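Journal club side-thread
Mid-discussion, someone asked how the predicted structure for our own chain would compare to the paper's figures. Pasting it here so we can look after the session.
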Amino acid sequence: MPLVLKDFNTLGYSLGIWEIIEDESFFVKRLNLSDKDKELLKNAKNNQRRLEILSVRLLLKSLGINLDISHSDTGKPIVQSGNISISHTKRYSALVYHPQKKVCVDIEKISNIVSKSKHLAFSKSEIEFAGIDLELLTTMWCCKECVVKLTNNIRINFTEQIYVHPFKENSIIQCDYTNYRTTSHLFFNYLTIKDHVIVWGG
């Protein structure tokens, strides 16, 4: 079932998170799928991908957002007005929408996968902050993935171009993105849901 948050922190974000525990028929019965969505489902490579597509469409409906999703050549989701970002794990689908601002969202399961590659993703000071805390490491990883989505820079060097400032529980996270000697300050919200972390902002 969905967790839906509208206008989070009064900043105009609509955030939706769906724990995928239902089968395909559950979603189909509750949706009026467009021809474009039917074609997308037809071409989905497996059942998991179909559930991801359907859960995102039902999230949009739950949020009261009456927009169709298309995709750019790079696979980035696009809507007719405003901006949307989508992320998936095997268990959850997540989306964030804003009527004006560029947005991003990333959801990841807390695991030791990030820890195994932390020296490739994080600076020395970031590692000193997080230590071996898997939840902190996963949250920082989500932040860096969000920076990639916001900047559309798939060649970002995680350790040199993105710095995640130390943060406290339930606080806003600041990330600095440096590109060609220019540094931008980005700010993200985050939630921990069971064994997953979700980060979003714009």
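Post-session note: The helical segments are 24-30, 35-42, 47-63, 113-116, 118-121, 124-130, 134-151, 158-161.
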